[in-house]
Design goal:
about 15% strand; about 260 residues; binds NADP nicotinamide-adenine-dinucleotide phosphate; seven-stranded parallel beta sheet; alpha/beta
């Protein structure tokens, strides 16, 4: 097992990509803190799935946009598991529209969860990792934060571009302590987030078919595709990689800038 003896936090792990990441890290031996904010029952289900697979996990409610709650998440993990070796900043929300119709409330919430959240958790966890002179931080960004961002995602794209930039700075700051900081930038991945983004099941099916055509690999993402990349970045296999944004999108032709 690649993560035997490690302690991990996965934010927003009650469903979707976070759930797949939590299950994957736990399957590789990490004691895993399953964070959620609203989906308490879903988070408990994920803990149950991990335990059924023979792993160890706990759930913890914390809104990562709150400094107090994000710090409590890290403190509880240290209290339960002894330390934090791996932090996956996965929690995110897709809110707002384009430049003309994004409300101030949506802008503020999107930036608070997607950008301030990782700042909150990263700072608290990095203080633990600096002391032990090792750690892995993986931020779940998006291809929407790269050049060629899709229409109607003003606040979301800005938050994810900010997360990419924050990853590079944190990698510089923490490298001397043996801490790797990287981003995974997924493309269209089938979760509740994209069903809501599409605005209903029928539109979702249509949009998913379009996104599949736009990918070199001819399909859209499954949460496990993203979890596999996170596992690589959480393991020693990636010890010489830091400050990078790894795109996991099946080779989206509309986003290629090679
Ligand atoms: P999702 O199905 O909507 O799940 C989002 C998760 O984030 C849920 O577990 C939710 O918890 C949690 N969450 C939301 N706000 C939170 C907060 N303030 N504090 C703590 N947890 C919070 O979304 P997803 O598609 O799995 O997305 C996961 C990540 O991947 C996000 O960062 C997203 O931007 C990124 N991403 C997704 C795609 C895609 O196509 N799906 C593409 C690119 C990037 P509760 O259920 O408890 O509310």
């Amino acid at each position: 097992m690649k993560l035997e003896g490690k302690a991990a936090i996965v934010t927003g792990a009650s469903r979707g990509i976070g759930r797949a990441v939590a299950r994957t890290l736990a399957r590789e031996g990490a004691r895993t803190m399953v964070n959620y904010v609203q989906g308490g029952q879903d988070a408990e289900r994920v803990v149950g799935e991990i335990e059924k697979d023979g792993g160890r996990a706990l759930s913890f409610k914390a809104d990562v946009s709150s400094r107090k709650e994000a710090t409590a998440l890290v403190e509880r993990t240290v209290a339960e598991f002894g330390t934090v070796d791996i932090l996956v900043n996965n929690a995110g929300v897709l809110l707002g529209g384009g430049v003309l119709d994004t409300t101030e409330a949506d802008w503020d919430r999107c930036l608070a969860v997607n950008l301030k959240g990782p700042y909150n958790t990263m700072q608290a966890a990095a203080k633990v990792m600096v002391k032990q002179r090792s750690g892995k931080i993986i931020n779940v960004s998006s291809i929407s934060g790269l050049l060629g961002a899709p229409e109607g995602e003003l606040a979301y794209s800005a938050s994810k571009a900010g997360l990419n930039a924050m990853t590079a700075v944190a990698a510089l700051d923490l490298g001397a302590y043996g801490i790797n900081v990287n981003c995974v930038a997924p493309g269209w991945t089938v979760t509740e987030m994209v069903v809501r983004r599409a605005g209903g099941r029928e539109a979702f099916e249509k949009l998913t078919a379009t996104k599949a055509r736009q990918a070199i690999m001819g399909r859209v993402g499954d949460p496990q595709d993203i979890a596999n990349a996170v596992l690589f970045l959480a393991s020693q296999d990636s010890s010489f990689i830091t400050g990078q944004v790894i795109v996991v999108d099946g080779g989206r032709k509309d986003f290629l800038h090679m």
